[in-house]
Queue: 4 jobs
Job 1
Amino acid sequence: MAKSYDPNNVFARILRGEIPSKKVRETEHTLAFHDIQPLAPTHILVIPKGAYVDMDDFTANASDAEVTDLFRTVGSIAREVGAAETGYRVLSNCGTDANQDVPHLHIHILAGRNLGRMINPA
């Protein structure tokens, strides 16, 4: 089933320049910027420029160049901000059960303190 992309979601509006962001990096296929409500001392979002709802949509439909660029950008930013030295978390919520808030694929880079367990045991 094809997923419906909302072209008026907040990240689409950031990509169009309608909403400002504190940019970390922009490449041909991705945009990285600081989260406006950080959950850790380092909290950066990396998004594809293409209209992908979530990780499932992206991995099924993005080009090899888009996939490579997104993941290389995540890794290089983590190293650039020093997060790779002590550790960092990469997180992408996908769908309703994961509490995805914005229907545009976004990857969180979280670092700068002990982040604890990923989730509590069931």
Job 2
Amino acid sequence: MATFTLEIVQAVSDWQRGGDHNTKVKRGAALKKACAGLPSSFCTWDGPCYRQEAHKKDRVWQLLADNRLPETTAAWTTDLGIAKTFKGGVPPEGLRGVIFKLHPPAASVVVNLSALYTDADFHDACERHRGQIPYYGDGIGRYGDSQKEVVLEIASLDQASIHAYGGYSSSREDLAELYFGRVPSDDDLAAFDQLCVQANVGAGAWWLTETGTQAVLKRMEPHVARLRTQRQATTAAPAR
């Protein structure tokens, strides 16, 4: 039986509150220290993990050109559906939504929060210590196991870990025009809406399938190769 101290409950609650990059680094270190002595059952996960990020164009190309995106201690989820809807789902236009997938190396698992939340002793400790933890309602009290979270310490991510890209389709009217081959009437739009319902698809935000994402990455390979050549030439150019 694990002993869940005030330090452990405090670290978990603080971590789940979130924060900016510097706060995340600080709280991640505190979480790792607090959970270091927990039984291995709380510090392992054998299945896939997912993480959604919103990238600007430079970060998209950094990942593809360098095949390496620096990472830190971060929250992942064991549930792909949660990753797809995290922070409202597909990021707003102007950002590229990406979902990463990996099977984490054993040494990378800081703590499996989802496993903690299935333990009755941890729940008892939360109730016992909650009055001593500032902003408990913004951390454990707000999130609990709703995010099926596993905290991982990963040095970097590569292109092979990209599971899905997200973005926005054309408008409903544009899609209907493509389908019917003419400017759609009101009746056309109604029929198009019914077809979308039957196929469970529609205009707006979407996540590509893993196969579709791999197809996009394949089409981007020539552009990535050209970018690498340009960057190498710039790096190798003598200073003036």
Job 3
Amino acid sequence: MKAPVTVVGLGPMGRAMAAAFLRNGHPTTVWNRTASKAASLVEQGAALVATPAEALAASELAVISQTDYKAMYDSLDGADLKGRVLVNLSSGSPDELRRAGEWASANGAALLTGGVMTPPPGIGGPDAYIMYSGPEELLDRHRATLRVLGDTTYVGADVGLSNLYYQAQLYLFWSTLAAYMHSIAMLQSAGVSAEQFRPFAAETVTSLGVDGPMGFLRIIAEEIDAGTSPGGENSMLMQAVGADHVVETAEAAGIDTMGPRALRDLFWRTVDAGHGADGLTSVMNVIRKGA
């Protein structure tokens, strides 16, 4: 028999996780404040229990998928946590996760945290992965079960790291797509469709991650880790002037300019800080100050 697992929280993500465990033969116990959300899972073989205490008693491993970490405290308050491995896949700030680790330990449990890098329909799919942090021996012990949800990517012992990675990934994802939509809006002002622009955008985004001379993700990472920011013919001043033109183009197109202005202002603050002759990675000097 495969290892039993408990799922606490049956929103879209929690239901997708419970269904994945059931499909892969894991005895699955579920609990949710609104019990009716478990109906389809019960039809698939899940055991619905009335209280969080019963849910935790059913399995050593409890996967938690709720709105936030406060929901975990509210749900599990008063339940016997001793000996349980809590795998919280909810979103939260890194410090919040660290406090949760202390709370779990004080109550006799161990905490693994995770950042889920796929929407609910992707759970269990070939491209799904979850970044885990916390005691690695706990992940190793339950890796076979958790792999049902997606690839188990371990990022470190600090329980806050999983969501630090997660928030960084979300920011990169959202800001890239928002910039894509700003770009489309600029082109639409001249009658260019989103589909006409899509192949050019795809080429640009794809080129960022390649290993060749245009692989800017690699180049920037190497420069930041080395503490260098070569400018030369592609100076920060040149790029700040170019950012001015992006703002002017957005204004002329009659679209929202807050995003382009924020980028333009970041570039000029970097120039004003004395990095006009340096390269793009010199913006890290402004970003790190948080001012």
Job 4
Amino acid sequence: MIKVSVLYPNNPGVHFDFGYYCSQHMDIVRKCLGDACKAIAVDQGLSSAGPNTPAPFVAMSHLYFDSVESFQKSFAPHAERIMADLSNFTDSQPMIQISEVKLAP
């Protein structure tokens, strides 16, 4: 299983609309990726490890797929639509990481 993590850096003054992201944007993502996407999780950054230190990321989403190929096949036809929606909820530029899941709950 692989995990596609989309990380939104928590730069000073960053805007992020969690209501829109969790309901409307993730609905677009679910519809576009279909059954290839096995699960989705969304995290809101609270802090870093030290006391009173900001989280390095304002938000993260994690999308789970059987394989990299499955992700690429489902994402490629809809990449433009998904990415075009970014301005509706944030001004942060996302970073993407694809990982192999070695241990999960």
